[in-house]
Each structure stands twice: as C-alpha cells, then as structure tokens.
Design brief:
By secondary structure, the chain is an alpha/beta fold. The chain contains four helices and seven strands.
Length: 165
C-alpha cells in the first residue's frame, strides 16, 4: 500500500500490478506492508502481515510497498527493510530527498522502473498516472536476482553496487 496518486488524503491503499511481480519472476515469503488481508494463494508471496508490521518480526524474502505517507514517512520502513537485508522495496523516485540519499546507498541494486506504474485501487480498478516514477531497491542476493530478472523483462534500468574483489 502506498500513496501513489495526487489525491492527498483519499487513500493509503494502492496495490502493485501483477506485471511488476511477473517481471521479477520470484516468489516472496512475506508482504510486509500488506494492508489487511494476506496474499491470495496464487499471488506473488506466501503470506502478508496485517496491522503494524514495523513492530513485528520479518522472516524470509520480503516484498515491501510501504505507505508513502508524509515527509520522511518511508524512513522507518526503509530502516527495518535494510536491517532485515533480504527483499525488494518499492519507493518513489525522489533522488534528491534526504531519505533517498541515505537508503539508496544501502541498496545492493536499484531498478528505475521505465514507465510510471499505474497502481491498483482496493476494488481492483486502475488508478490514474501517478505524479512520480518508482524504483525498486534490492537488499541481498535474492533481491538483486529479482531486479536482474526485471531488467531482462524490460521493466526498467538496473544499477548494481560494485563489490570489491
């Protein structure tokens, strides 16, 4: 869930369309920001966390599309995501924001999604074109592999962190 549209206050619940998961070609163990219902059996992950996942333990390979919320609303989510160290996080392309400067440096890879994602409303309808683009941040080798798959599927442009040999 996230605020992806310019209608402030209207809703925090916006779902990532299936084609994003299809491009990554992986199965996540946990959707850490699932709004109120666990993932369906044929979805992209095995289970979801309901209420306040920031206070609950995370396990396995996680998907995170957190509420974008107000200024610095992503910071606690990104902090926990990178402490966990195994997953993919969807964030807005706000490369000049202080949170972006801090947390993008911790990512093992970043995929800049080529087209703006038209997120889904809770009723399944497609939202309007969002105000900003989105990026996927990888933590850990499985996250990097998912983003490499997504780049091969032409979802966007991938930047990987160079590792010392």
């Amino acid at each position: 869930m996230a605020v992806h549209e310019q209608c402030l206050g209207a809703s925090d619940e916006w779902y990532t369309p299936r084609y994003v998961f299809d491009a990554m070609g992986v199965l996540f163990d946990l959707d850490v920001s699932s709004p109120a219902v666990p993932c369906p059996a044929d979805a992209f992950c095995a289970s979801g966390i309901r209420a306040d996942s920031l206070t609950q333990p995370w396990a396995g390979f996680v998907w995170m599309n957190p509420p974008f919320g107000g200024r610095n609303g992503l910071v606690p989510w990104l902090e926990k995501f990178f402490q966990h160290g195994d997953g993919v996080a969807l964030v807005p392309d706000r490369t000049s924001a202080p949170w972006w400067q801090t947390y993008s440096r911790r990512a093992d890879a970043i995929l800049f999604v080529a087209k703006k994602i038209r997120f889904l409303r809770p009723d399944g309808s497609t939202g309007d074109s969002p105000a900003q683009g989105t990026s996927l941040l990888a933590a850990g080798p499985r996250g990097v592999a998912a983003l490499e798959n997504a780049e091969r599927a032409d979802l966007g442009l991938l930047f990987e962190r160079r590792r010392a040999a």
